[in-house]
């Protein structure tokens, strides 16, 4: 990385940011600070609840705690820098810092894609093969699936990074975005990036689309299998699946729009990416806690237990 940095004329990039209206900068600053605090606290609350509750020991909540951890990290890749840049006239990021941000953002983003697919597989086994659930979804299997998600995210991210870092950057160095992503960087490269753009889109887009199709098919199979269930069992399963489907649609929509296309930029790209990197990590804890009675009951029990301990 260091050798490649010195071979380029560009040693830093200028981020044009998200909001160009100086009058709105203080409002945006407050909004993003509150949004980031809510995202971190919301996901942290889920992690603490799952870890400390004796009622949330199923594989689904094991995966949910990791999903919350990834959301917290994913949001932290871009939002703190975005907040800090609001009052800076010249929003710069070093070449190394830019490449590192690209790598980490794709690492957590792709890991979440694979983890959401794992959650769908868990729900499929739980609903369609309930008698074999405990023998299939053992602790070893759950740990291996989480590890595979991390490894898959790393491989995807290292490929995206290597495809980008080998390009020459000799100017201009203004990125029309609020963080370093692949497409804006390809537009600044001093060479023809068509082939690299196709490879980048294939890497990100195909992963997103394939996992999305797998998720849709799995939930269709689950919904079809629910027709033979009792009304109570059907209601509970539908409630759980509805939460997961909502997260899938909110998360995959922006990703498919951003990466399943040639390396071009549109005026709405920043807003779509903002939704993916800032709103989605906040929506996950809201959806899972507001729609999941087991999580809400576990939170109430933990709160009551802490109050009782405080009284003693």
UniProtKB/TrEMBL annotation:
Keywords: Cell membrane, G-protein coupled receptor, Membrane, Olfaction, Receptor, Sensory transduction, Transducer, Transmembrane, Transmembrane helix
Domain named G-protein coupled receptors family 1 profile: residues: 42-288
Gene Ontology cellular component list: plasma membrane
Top-level lineage group: Eukaryota
Gene Ontology MF annotations: G protein-coupled receptor activity; olfactory receptor activity
UniProt cross-references to PROSITE patterns, sorted A to Z: G_PROTEIN_RECEP_F1_1, G_PROTEIN_RECEP_F1_2
TM regions (residue ranges): 23-48, 60-79, 99-121, 133-159, 205-226, 238-260, 272-290
Gene3D superfamilies: Rhodopsin 7-helix transmembrane proteins
Intracellular or extracellular location(s): Cell membrane
Membrane topology: Multi-pass membrane protein
Pfam families according to UniProt: 7tm_4
Keyword Transit peptide: no
Family per record: Belongs to the G-protein coupled receptor 1 family.
PANTHER family with a match to the protein in the record: OLFACTORY RECEPTOR (PTHR48002)
Name recorded for this polypeptide: Olfactory receptor
